[in-house]
Amino acid sequence: MVKDRKLLSIEMLRVSSEEYKELPQIGVVVVLDNIRSAHNVGSAFRTCDSFKIDKLWLCGICAAPPSAEIHKSALGAEDSVPWEHSDSTMSVVERLRSEGYTIVSVEQTVNSVSLEKFSPEFDKGKKYALIFGNEVDGVDQAVVDASDISLEIPQFGTKHSLNVSVSVGVILWHFTLARLMNMSK
Asked: Are 128 and 101 in contact, with CB atoms under 8 Å apart?
């Protein structure tokens, strides 16, 4: 007797890339600040697709489609997630602020808020721009200075550093959980 089984692809009710783009926006965009690794960019695309993020910004020296390595880790999500490249992360931050986004740097700072203590306020109509920094230096200090808040993922090992693609997944799950909790009210 089978107690459980994996879902078939047809049972997952996946939408097409075209249908994805027509789904309602959720008020969350992701900004990658100088992410050079095409694998990490591809993973971010795939994670953004999974959580239905409104847009992915690729800023500065950042891998961008078309790229075989991005496609390999994104599994085609670069075709579903709206994205744009900008030479300047700061110009994107300024634009998003003017569009009403709360600017959130995901970074360890002296005033960063531990993720479990932060509750996104989707019920108040807030929109969030989540900024993730590069593999070596993190989020640029000027961008941190321009942010409304810095969020830190609590860590307990010796490294105090996660791969950026893992950080994207952790943060987006936190924001998605808040959306789901708000929807169930």
From this structure: yes
Which tens digit of pLDDT belongs to each residue from 136-173?
899 999 999 999 999 999 999 998 889 999 999 999 99
Q: Which tens digit of pLDDT belongs to each residue from 79-101?
A: 999 999 999 999 999 999 999 99
Q: What pTM did the predictor assign?
A: 0.94
Record the tokens describing residue 79, joined without a space: 């075709």
Domains delineated in the chain: 24-152+161-183 (3.40.1280.10)
Taken in order 88, 176, 124, 80, is the CA torsion positive or negative? positive
Query: Are the C-beta atoms of residues 38 and 100 closer than 8 Å to each other?
Result: no
Q: Residues 164, 127, 103, CA angle at the centre, nearest 5°?
A: 55
